[in-house]
Structures are given as structure tokens and as C-alpha cells.
């Protein structure tokens, strides 16, 4: 039996795992990184990038079909095969770019196998070898959850792992799950001429709740019915029959986007002695990524905390550095929470609202905002949260191009800026960003801050 000795063993060669191995090696650790497929990152292969390619195609078709409001008559001719060919061609380019990073890892450190724990410092590999490490990083990612009753649909069942390999656009599509990914793909396919309906057992849409969710659904194209708070069943036949309460409809395909669960099966976490939560995910410190006091760290989608790429990179970096330095584990400062749904309008949620009496809230609308009216996208809102001194703590955006304003607020929150500080910054005219002034002024008023008369107006005395 061959035994490999190293300082840090990383399980999983996705975004978090690659970052963990790189930072551990840069810290001087002897590393190995273990992955059965070495297929590339989730983002490039089945996540961020192919979905944005499909969204871009849908946006192009929508721009043509909605040009009449500008006095331009046009009808899009959508060639589904060509759409999917572009998605796959550029997707493969992105995947190949991520695979090039594999070359930076010493060949002796790359292992094609699965791993399971035999102790807190030891792993058994599917190729028969054993690994002994001073510290281990779990970065196995996540896998799509298939609800009960949907696993018998055969090739009519699509997930984010298969939908981008379609040779042509589906004739019709039921989307199960109204989260960010489900809504992004639902809208993209609808804009490309596919009949789409969305179903969800909960009441959240693209991460929005309550009245915010209702407002967002109202802004979507009326051709996308969204059914919330419904129990959904599927029956296979010539087409798939979807039943949700009294509603019944037939579709050529069903896209399941009901969430992703940490891919921890087969690791034998019991052998590692780790304490886990009710879902079987190891309990860990979000500032160090360490699982309890064990020489084990967990990063990326595997820990089910913040399942987005930039967080996976950050968590992997922290996990790798701390694994290399173990037992000298250091706490890191977490980035401001930032999540974006690339729908139209976009949805962004930034930061964490303060609790209790210290919280202040103000809103702004884009329904009559100048630049939004010019572009034909006059809809949306922003809700800002601050503490009692006017420091911005969180923002919920549902508006055109929210991704840009989201970064503006992430920076402001990190820097501890107040609403008054932001009003002192230049905001160019005419831009969508101007629309946030009302909310900033509302925070100032709610906090009884002294606001010079020219803040937010752009005028100076004497103009």
C-alpha cells in the first residue's frame, strides 16, 4: 500500500480547491490536490459563464423584439441551434482557460481519484493509495438537488449540469425553483421564444421576499407565469405534465433549479471526527474555515454558506493559508455579503441590515427616473438600511443594471460610509445611479443628520 505524505491535502479541484492549494503551496507547504474528474470549475463549466451566455442571447432577442417602443420595427429570427452552439463554444473556451491553471500545479501534486477520511489526518484514495497530511481542506463543491418525483423524467429532465449541452432550444420549459439561477434561465429562454412557466414551493423569487417578490414578478415579461407557494408534481409521457394545485400544463422539458447541496457523500466525515449540522455539513468557523479544532478546513460550496465564486475564492485562500500554518490559525475579515441575480431587472442584495432600534430604512424608485425612461427601463427600486448614525449597512436593489450600483454599496459598506458621505460624492448626469439619491436623502432624514442644502443636487452656492 502506497502512502503519500504531505503538509496539506485538498479534496476538490474547483474554484475553492484551486485557491486553497495555491495559497498553501505559496506558504511553503507540500501539497496534493485530489479530484476524480479535473473537469474545470463549476462557474466556467455549468454555472456563471454559460448562463450569462444564454442570458446575453436572450437580451439580444429582446432588444430586437422590443425596439418598436423607440420607433424601430424589427422581428428577431431566432436560430436555436446557433444560439446553443455559441453558448457551448464560448463555454468551452472559458473551461479551457480554467484548466490551464492546472498546469501551475506540480504534476506530482495532482491526483485523479476520490477520497474518504480514515482519520482527521488521513485519507484513503480510490486508486488504492493512502494520504497522510498535517491538514486537509474539503472543497468538494455542491450537487443539484432533484426533488422527489422528478428523477424518472429521463432526458426531459434538465439541470444546470445538462441544460447548456442542448443542441437546440426546448419547445417549452417548466422551471422548478424560483431562485436566482432558476429565474435567470427562465427569463433567458422565454426571451428566446420558449414557452416558460416557473414553479416554487416557497414564496421567494430571485432572493426577494413578500412585496419585493411581487413587485419583481410584475416587472418580468408577462409571458413568464410564476407560481409560488405550490406543491409540484411531474408525470412523464409524450411530454411532461406538471401539476401545481389546480394548475396543469405540459412541457417538452423540465429544468430543476431547486438548490444545490454540499457534495460531501462518500467522504466519511464520521471517521474524521467532525461535528456536523442537521444537514450533515461540518460545523466551521467562518473567519478561519476550520472545522471545530480539527486539522480540517472547508471552503466554497461544500460549506453551504455563500455559494458564489468570489466567496469560494476568498474562502479557499483562507483555508489554504490556515491549513499550511496549522495549528497557527488566523482569523480573516469576511467580505461584505454580495449576491446578484442577472435577470432583467437585476436583483442585488448587499450587506446585512442592523437589528433592533438602531436600524433606519429608506427607499427610492426608478419608475420615473430620467435615464431609466430614456433607455425604456423605467422600473425598479432600491431599499437602503443604515445604523442610527447613517452608516450604510445593507441594500436591496431591483432595478436596471443593479450589478454596478451593488459594487458601489459594497465599497461604501466596507469603508463605513454614511448616506451623507455618499451624497458628497459625484454622481454623473444622466445615469441610473442618480436614482439612489432619494434613498440616501431619506437615510439622512431618518437619522436626523445635518444635510447641506446642496447635497445630492449638484449645485453650489452662487450657481
From TrEMBL:
NAD(+) binds at residues 177-184, 259. The active site is at 429 (proton acceptor). FAD binds at residues 52, 301. Its EC number is 1.8.1.4. Transmembrane segments: none annotated. Pfam families: Pyr_redox_2, Pyr_redox_dim. Disulfide bonds join 43-48. Keywords: FAD, Flavoprotein, NAD, Nucleotide-binding, Oxidoreductase. Its cofactor is FAD. Residues 340-439 form the Pyridine nucleotide-disulphide oxidoreductase dimerisation domain. This is Dihydrolipoyl dehydrogenase.
Amino acid at each position: 500500500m502506497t502512502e503519500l505524505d504531505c503538509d496539506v491535502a485538498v479534496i476538490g479541484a474547483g474554484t475553492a480547491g484551486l485557491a486553497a492549494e495555491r495559497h498553501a503551496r505559496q506558504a511553503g507547504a507540500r501539497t496534493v490536490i485530489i479530484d476524480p474528474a479535473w473537469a474545470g470549475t463549476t462557474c466556467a463549466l455549468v454555472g456563471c459563464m454559460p448562463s450569462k451566455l444564454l442570458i446575453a442571447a436572450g437580451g439580444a432577442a429582446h432588444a430586437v423584439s422590443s425596439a418598436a417602443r423607440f420607433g424601430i420595427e424589427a422581428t428577431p429570427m431566432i436560430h436555436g441551434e446557433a444560439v446553443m452552439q455559441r453558448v457551448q463554444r464560448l463555454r468551452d473556451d472559458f473551461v479551457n482557460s480554467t484548466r490551464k491553471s492546472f498546469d501551475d500545479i506540480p504534476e506530482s501534486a495532482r491526483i485523479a481519484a476520490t477520497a474518504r477520511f480514515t482519520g482527521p489526518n488521513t485519507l484513503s484514495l480510490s486508486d488504492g493509495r493512502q494520504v497522510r497530511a498535517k491538514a486537509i481542506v474539503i472543497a468538494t463543491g455542491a450537487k443539484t438537488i432533484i426533488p422527489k418525483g422528478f428523477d424518472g423524467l429521463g432526458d426531459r429532465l434538465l439541470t444546470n449540469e445538462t441544460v447548456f449541452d442542448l443542441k437546440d432550444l426546448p419547445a417549452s420549459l417548466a422551471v422548478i425553483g424560483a431562485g436566482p439561477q432558476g429565474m435567470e434561465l427562465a427569463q433567458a429562454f422565454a426571451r428566446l421564444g420558449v414557452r416558460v412557466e416557473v414553479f416554487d414551493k416557497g414564496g421567494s423569487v430571485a432572493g426577494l421576499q413578500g412585496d419585493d417578490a411581487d413587485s419583481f414578478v410584475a416587472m418580468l415579461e408577462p409571458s413568464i407565469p410564476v407560481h409560488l407557494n405550490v406543491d409540484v408534481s411531474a408525470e412523464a409521457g409524450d411530454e411532461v405534465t406538471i401539476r401545481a394545485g389546480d394548475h396543469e400544463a405540459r412541457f417538452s422539458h423540465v429544468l430543476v433549479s431547486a438548490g444545490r447541496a454540499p457534495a460531501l457523500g462518500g467522504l466519511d466525515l464520521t471517521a474524521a471526527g467532525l461535528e456536523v449540522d442537521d444537514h450533515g455539513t461540518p460545523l466551521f468557523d467562518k473567519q478561519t474555515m476550520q472545522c471545530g479544532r480539527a486539522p480540517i478546513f472547508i471552503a466554497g460550496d461544500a460549506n453551504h454558506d455563500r455559494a458564489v465564486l468570489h466567496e469560494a475564492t476568498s474562502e479557499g485562500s483562507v483555508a489554504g493559508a490556515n491549513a499550511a500554518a496549522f495549528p497557527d490559525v488566523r482569523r480573516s475579515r469576511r467580505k461584505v455579503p454580495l449576491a446578484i441575480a442577472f435577470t432583467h431587472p437585476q436583483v442585488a442584495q448587499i450587506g446585512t441590515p442592523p437589528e433592533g432600534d438602531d436600524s433606519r430604512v429608506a427607499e427610492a424608485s426608478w419608475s420615473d427616473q430620467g435615464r431609466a425612461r430614456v433607455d425604456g427601463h423605467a422600473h425598479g427600486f432600491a431599499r437602503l438600511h443604515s445604523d442610527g448614525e447613517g452608516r450604510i449597512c445593507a441594500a436591496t436593489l431591483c432595478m436596471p443594471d443593479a450589478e454596478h450600483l451593488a459594487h458601489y454599496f459594497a465599497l461604501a459598506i466596507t469603508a463605513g460610509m454614511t448616506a451623507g458621505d455618499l451624497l458628497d460624492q459625484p454622481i454623473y448626469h444622466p445615469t441610473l445611479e442618480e436614482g439612489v439619491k432619494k434613498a440616501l436623502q431619506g437615510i439622512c432624514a431618518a437619522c436626523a443628520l445635518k444635510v447641506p442644502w446642496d447635497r445630492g443636487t449638484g449645485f453650489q452656492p452662487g450657481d
